[in-house]
Specification:
The chain is mainly alpha-helical and 84 residues long. It contains 4 helices and no strands. The protein has one domain. The longest helix is centred in the middle third of the chain and has 29 residues.
């Protein structure tokens, strides 16, 4: 049997990924979702870095929480996971 005669078997997950990629290529709305997701991830990283810098500069969780629009406890709980 030649390589071109071999049958390729895809898992359900692989088939779904291919369908998603095909839909993405054909849809401006889905491309916009992908772009916004990347932007959100970049913005979250910037925010995380800013919180880290604020902590390094000695700002309290009260001040950081106010900047984030959350309670000091909420800010502390979220960012302590990152070791800040």
């Amino acid at each position: 049997m030649q390589a071109s005669d071999e049958k390729v078997v895809l898992t359900v997950g692989e088939k779904n990924r291919l369908r998603g990629q095909q839909a993405l290529r054909g849809s401006a709305v889905l491309q916009n979702i992908q772009s916004l997701k990347k932007n959100a991830e970049a913005a979250q990283k910037e925010l995380d870095d800013a919180v880290g810098k604020a902590r390094e500069e000695g700002y309290s969780w009260v001040a950081i929480g106010a900047g984030l629009g959350v309670s000091p406890q909420g800010a502390r709980q979220k960012y302590l996971r990152f070791g800040l």
